[in-house]
Amino acid sequence: MTQLGNHVTLGYMTAKKNTINQPPKLLARNDYGLLEDKDISYKYKENGLVDWRLMIDPSWLYPNPSSVASGKANYNTDVSTLQDKDLCIKLFGLKELALIRGYTNVSYNVVKAAQDYVAVSCGITWVPNYESENKEIYFESIADAHWNNTKNFAKNFLSSIAENRAFGRCVRGFLGINVVGDFELGEIEKKTGVIGFQQTKPDDLNPTDPRATLLRLMTEKNVTLPALKAKIAKEKMFDGAESVESLEEIPDKEVFKLIERLNKLKAKKR
Predict the structure, then answer these.
(1) Model confidence band, residue 190 (pLDDT cutoffs 50, 70, 90)
(2) Strand pairing class (117-126; 103-113)
(3) 183 and 164 Cβ atoms separated by less than 8 Å
(4) Any idea what DSSP says for residue 267?
(5) Residue 217 — φ and ψ, nearest 5°?
(6) Which of 109-123, 160-174, 235-249 has the lowest mean pLDDT?
C-alpha cells in the first residue's frame, strides 16, 4: 500500500484516503496471469503448466458413491488415498477453481427443452495467462438432464441441473479435471455404474453425449472397447489414462480427439 497525495493505492486499484468501505485485500494478476496472493499456492506439472487438479481444496472432494457401493471406499476414507475415478467434487469446488483461473464471461444456451429432457451448453471466456500464450480463450461444453439421469427432487429442476452440469463440465474440460462432479450423478449411475469397457451399445447412451458418437464410429470402424482402452493407456492420452476403466473417465476433449481420429481411420476387416 502506498500513498499518493490524498489517494491510497491498493494493488492495481486506487481508492481515496477517506473511503469508508474498503475490502480487506484486493486481488491482482501478475504478468503471467496468475493471482498475486500469498494464500494461493500454485502447483505445477513437470512441463511447467499449472496442475489444476492439485489446486482443488480437498474439502470439496469426497468418495464417489459408486466406489462406496462397490466396496472400494467408504465415506470416511481419506480422499488423498483415492484415485480420481473414485472421487466426486462439489460444484462450489469447481466455482472456486474457476475464480482462481479467472474468467470474464459465462454464457448459457438452451439446446433443447422438454418436460422430461433439457440440454444446455455453457461457454466460458477465460482470461489470458502464460498457459494460453497470454491470449483470451473461449471454451464450451454441453450437458443434459432428464428423468433417467437425475434423482429425488432434482427431477423437478431439470433446467437448473443441466445448467450446473454444463458449467461443471466446461470447467473440468478446460482445466483437465477428471473428477466427476456430484451434480452429474443420477440414479442411472447408482444402479448400473459408469459406462464400462464392455459391450455397451450407442443406443444405451444419450444422443447428446459425445461418447455415443464415439461408440457408433467404433462400431463402423470395427474397433473394440478393449482395443480402445489399450490404445488410451499406451499413448497416456491424459493423466490417469493407464488406469481408466470407463468411457466416462475420458475427458470430453479427449473423446473429441478420438472421434476425429476414428473419422480418418479406414474400417478394419472383420
Answers:
(1) very low
(2) antiparallel
(3) yes
(4) P
(5) -65, -40
(6) 235-249
Indicate the residue type of 103. Answer: Y
What is the dihedral sign for C-alpha 216, 111, 93, 106? Answer: positive
**Grid cell listed for 4:** 499518493
Q: What is the CA angle 14-15-17, rounded to 5?
A: 130
pTM above 0.85, yes or no: no
Using DSSP's 3-state secondary structure scheme, residue 255 falls into helix
With a CB cutoff of 8 Å and minimum separation 6, the contacts of 134 are 33, 128
Instruction: Write out the three cell numbers for 185.
Output: 450423478
Dump the DSSP string for 115-160.
SSEEEEEEEEEEPP-GGGTT--EEEEEEEEEETTS--GGGGG-HHH
Confidence at 40, pLDDT banded by 50, 70, 90: very high
- What's the pLDDT at 204? 52
- Which bin fits 129, alpha (ψ -120 to 50), beta or left (φ > 0)? beta
Residue type, 232: I
Positive or negative torsion for Cα 248, 249, 252, 254? negative
Work out the angle between the directed axes of helices 252-264 and 210-221 (0-180°, nearest 10): 30
